[in-house]
């Protein structure tokens, strides 16, 4: 199977609190890499600021983006709360880490005009 599915995803902590330190972002990236691996996906890029995180993930068609996102958010929230309890308790309460929403955009590949031209130039069977 050949595929090229890339998604740019942005997560924000609950209430858009400024919870991320460099150390927490590094650990979050490590967690996201492990979760992506479990989905046969690849975390191509990861970065963030104090109040949000950006991911670029390459994922197979069998991994629904919403399922991947739910796992990324769930596993990272659980582990980060466990590993940085004192710091995170100052910013977040009620058992939440991430905002329930997220931004996702498909990206990568050729421009639509190139794909359209490619399809138009394919040899018809028969």
Automatic annotation (TrEMBL):
InterPro entries (alphabetical): Transposase_17 (IPR002686), Transposase_17_sf (IPR036515)
Residues passing through the membrane, by range: none
Entries under SMART domains matching the protein: Y1_Tnp (SM01321)
Sequence ranges assigned to domain Transposase IS200-like in this UniProt record: 2-122
SUPFAM superfamilies: Transposase IS200-like
One protein family per Pfam: Y1_Tnp
Protein name: IS200/IS605-like element IS609 family transposase
Taxonomic lineage from the root: Bacteria, Bacillati, Actinomycetota, Actinomycetes, Streptosporangiales
Gene name of the encoded protein: tnpA
